[in-house]
Amino acid sequence: MTAGQLRVVSWNIREGVPVRDPGGTVADALTEAVHRHGPDVLAVQEAPFDPDGGSPLLDAVAVAAGLPHRLYFPYSPAMHLAGGRAGLALLGREPWSEGVRSLLPNPGLRRTTPDRELVTWEKGMLFGRQSLGGRQVWVGCVHLPPFHLFRTAPDDPSVRGVWTGLASFINALPAGPLVVCADLNSERRSLLMDRLPERPLRSAVTAGTSPIGMAVDDVLFGPEFLLRSSSVRFGFSDHALCAVTLELKP
């Protein structure tokens, strides 16, 4: 990490279960993708965990990528790994001085398909704080429900509590520079940003990150930062990796 610069990679990795041939093991593919961008922070949505809350996959990537400082938050049954759990992870090059975790309100959506009964499981927020350029910076990892799977618009009244819960959590964080790495499952950034009038955020990612080209993933950042670069890259997951470089303003 150079003084005042923060390189972030955010990726929904689908519990490490590939939808595309990774050309080797998932651990190798994930490590290679991280190495390519050399991030100071890796934020992972749909992170895979074992029943005890450990993540051998992310532990291996953390060592290989030089990101030894880890915050984990498993909170729901895995969808793709029998007996496993899923959640969020933050891997950092620098130590985390603090970590906070919280579940989002569950809207209780249901949908019956020919194959199964779909219900919304818990989703959550994981934020860590670390030093950057002599200042304490918050970096968050967030995953919202897949509104589209339930044929529910992201601004439907039934899911309003998800957005207000996320905004309330962010508003309650101590003041300071803020970065939010998120799978929002929506292109409607205003559903969050309009609820943060005292803590404005900007979007770093506008390219499509889903299989149908929707920009559902993002790295949001506060006014203390300048955006230096932003790119997306598809790999083994059904979401694209988002790589962003930010720099603290003098």
From TrEMBL:
Which superkingdom does the taxonomy of this entry point to?
Bacteria
- Molecular-function GO term, any one: endonuclease activity
Q: Which UniProt keywords apply?
A: Endonuclease, Hydrolase, Nuclease
Pfam families in alphabetical order = Exo_endo_phos
Q: Which residues form the Endonuclease/exonuclease/phosphatase domain?
A: 9-239
What name has this protein been given in UniProt?
Endonuclease/exonuclease/phosphatase family protein
Which organism is the protein's source?
Streptacidiphilus alkalitolerans
